[in-house]
Amino acid sequence: LPRFTDIQVWNFYMMGAVGAIKNYIETMIRDSEPGYKIMLMDKETTSIVSVVMGMSEVMKQEVYMFEQVEQMSSGENMSYLKCLVFVRPTAENIALLCQELQQPRYGAYYIYFSNVVSKAGVKQLAEADEQEVVREVQELYADYLALAPHFYTLNIPTPVTGMRWSPGSLQRSVQGVTSLIFSLLLLPDIRYQANSELARQLADEIRQTIVVEGSVVANCSARSTVSHSNGFYNSNTGNTTNIGGNSSSVVLILDRRDDAITPLLHQWTYEAMVHQLLGVNGGRVSLANVSGISEELKEVVMTPTQDQFYAKSMYLNYGEIGQTIKQLMEEYQSKLSKQQKVESITDMKNFVQSYPQFKQMSGTVSKHVTVVGELSRVVSARRLLHVSECQQELICGTDHSPNLQRVHELVRDPSISAEDATVLVMLYALRHQSHPNKDTRGLVAALERRKVTPSYVKLVSAILEYGGNAARQSTLFSTQLPQDVSAFKKLLFKGVKGVENVYTQHKPLVLETATLAIKGKLKDNLYPYSGNASPATHRPQTVVVFIIGGVTYEESAAIHQLNSSLSSSNSNSSSSSSATRVLLGGTHVHNTPSFLEAVQAAVVDRDRSVQKL
């Protein structure tokens, strides 16, 4: 690992997850000597790279082509090219690299692992490198997907099976979280949700990894005056001693079971709607099923690092994105009319100079108009505004009888999909689990009369097992007086056909938890320190939240808003070292379908019956 200057340490602190990964990639390419090279990656590192840098951006830095280690061919010898290897340090990858080195196709190999590699793995590579083509082997801390500066994931869809860690998921989670904190040059305290055995196990494993690897990270950074970015880990107490002694960081391990509500709700920011209704996989969205779609739009890239319009619009709600798309269309049409007026040499010159930007804008307009159009179609076809209104009344109100009546009406409505009807019953079951007059069984019977598949019906009891009263330590539901959702219809946009009110009154639990963490007000009995460490005496400046069981884009938007407010507060401070921020991540980024699959896996083989309803 390289040593860093004061400026680099400060930049690492400020640029967040995306900047840290991007810096590693650029450093790899730069340090592998000048000249054309190929980039050899595995499936996971391909995703790690692609969400922060477009392949065209990488190719501008003398990368000739890309290849996946799982699909390596015994093709022609290209010894005139260098090979830049970026893979996870798994036994499978090391075995594949050894095969490649025994019959090397390239003139030199620069091998970078996304995390710490075992001594045995290095020995295997050395023994396979009989022709001495390996020029460099380095370990990086780039073992997570950075979706935004504050948002990361490990892409483990079902980390829990039968309320225990799925095989390999605990180790992968330890590797991912420690990779993140080391990439940001943090040596934090570790806290965890007290009622979660999974959270305790993960917290203890992360702490042990910091004890072993933390001194390496500390020695890799310059002995600088940037006190909040680095520290030395005391293996006896588990505490972080920061260089300046005035600041700290904390990793907070949470369990998705404490808030099973958020992944079930329809989400209304642009980013969340795309994932909820279309699905995002590695920053790509498939539109292949859209009627009349052109070939170039069958799969589109939707990442803020590669789409400036998306970066500006991803946190806008449904109504706002409609207005923004309209403005983008008007701007495009204005520029198009100007491009059509080429009457002089000067006009021709201006056209040639602006053509690349014009073509890019044309692609941006086509992509987002198509995506928003498909979102609008799905919202209308599934009557999601009606469904969402009912969801918000269920979760944010307290009046049982109207809730029950409305859920019954929608469950019986054939225009409401089986999935949406089932989710409404699940929300009702969670919200009114302790109500003396609850009628969860009656709603389940209504699902069965609709011929909803048995696997969906079983989800109602599964969600109670997964996230019911017995599974939670937090107060998830408000005890305030009943509220009318119509009072929250704040945004009514005119001039864009099909845009109606959106409901966003629900605030995810993690927002409250992160806010308490930043203020130093988390209760020690609810969020103890791993290893019986002494409680911190001051507020943390960086809080890294990791949710076992996954996160959502609604939660990402909430943390983004929190960070924005913290940034405004920091800008009023006279000291730059007072910068405060929250990073949020989890095992997976869920939409409702993927969360339901995770719930099914989590409660598999556990005793459940309709009697528990």
From TrEMBL:
Pfam families per record: Sec1 (PF00995)
One cellular-component annotation, GO: endomembrane system
Gene Ontology annotations of biological process type: protein transport; vesicle-mediated transport
Subcellular location: Endomembrane system
UniProt keyword terms in alphabetical order: Membrane, Protein transport, Transport
Coiled-coil segments on the chain, per record: none
UniProt topology in membrane: Peripheral membrane protein
Family, as annotated: Belongs to the STXBP/unc-18/SEC1 family.
Protein name, UniProt field: Vacuolar protein sorting-associated protein 45
Species name: Hirondellea gigas
Taxonomic placement: Eukaryota, Metazoa, Ecdysozoa, Arthropoda, Crustacea
